[in-house]
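Fresh eyes needed here. Kindly weigh in on this sequence plus structure tokens:
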Amino acid sequence: MKIRTLFLVGLICLTVMGMVQAQFVSADELVEIETNLSVDFVHPGSSFQAAVIANLQPTWHVNAHQPTLEYLIPTELTLESVDGLTLGETRYPESIRLKFEFAKEELDVYEGRVIMRFPVSVSPDASGERVIQGSFRYQACNNEICLAPTRK
């Protein structure tokens, strides 16, 4: 009887620990960001394409840039201006429409690899190195929960 009770208590503790750990998933851990340029070298007066790529962990998604419902947090790439560069409008990928347990209707979301592109024009008188900085705002969700919105 003692061994059986200890086993049951241990099993309950492991289950509770797993539930608590799931509640402490960090949205920051669920998305990795990488960047890419369409060229190896940039010359004054030239133009090129830049991309910010968000890689989402399996079973997680983020809302589309234009979410299905007004109250949903849109995925958004915000870029800071840079002297000598003109940054064009960000182009977001086509969303996919999925049904989740927590919503009555299908929602427009991104899953997997999310590639956001924007054109860049270099001023004819630009010289030296330039760094484009920005932030990626998103709300990570799975089929059961949504985490607090965050930025990377």
Remarks:
- The chain has a mean pLDDT of 86.
- The CA atoms of residues 36 and 51 lie 5 Å apart.
